[in-house]
Amino acid sequence: MTPRVTLAIATRVLAQLRRDHRTVAMLVVLPALLVTLMWWMFQDSPTTFDRVGGPLLAVFPAIIMFIVTSVATLRERSTGTLARLFTLPMGKLDFLLGYALAFAAIAVVQAAFVVSIALYALDLDIQGPAWQLAAVAVLDGILGTALGLFASAFAATEFQAVQLMPAVMIPQLLLCGLLVPRDHLPTLLHTLSDALPLSYAVDAVQKVAQGNNPLPQTLLVLTFTTTALTLGATTLERRTP
Length: 241
Prior knowledge:
- By secondary structure, the chain is an all-alpha fold.
- It has helices at 3-19, 21-41, 46-78, 81-85, 92-121, 130-151, 158-175, 187-193, 197-209, 215-235.
- The chain crosses the membrane at residues 24-42, 54-74, 95-121, 133-154.
- Belongs to the ABC-2 integral membrane protein family.
């Protein structure tokens, strides 16, 4: 890995995103709109929104980042851009880390916006500090990015990349504790949830909401993120077969 090359890739991706206003709007605004929709649904039951609102700050950014990064990476391969990039002195890890760094910058803006809306416009009740909630939300967005980069290696077309979202993210959404507390899941499903990264992303947000230390959960999220990027570097193809 070469830091100069990684930064060059990140700069290139950010320049592309700056010209794509719709994608930027989806990345930054859509999570806040979805959280607002959930608040509206539970307007007559604010305690329910307080229970699910925190986990949503982990789930929505991760899912949206997964979709965008998996499709964007696949497009680089299908258009031949990736093959041309690899004629330069650039490694696979440089490419993936550059993408991750660019979307991490987007995740900071995304988290600041959605957390501000949730706390100050929707009155989401949390016991921990707002900065800690935003930090965890950023990390969860980066997790979605890493999973999207890894999953893109198994798709040959952009349509297949989109199909990976329900295959990879929906099971995690169902088992992460958002709908049913993980301790209440059947034994087999609880064991499966322990192996899914989104479970720990939600756990970290819930720890902040309860005023507890989320460090163990955030370290696990970081581990999953690093593992996904490493595996992505080993499976990344230079072009679509």
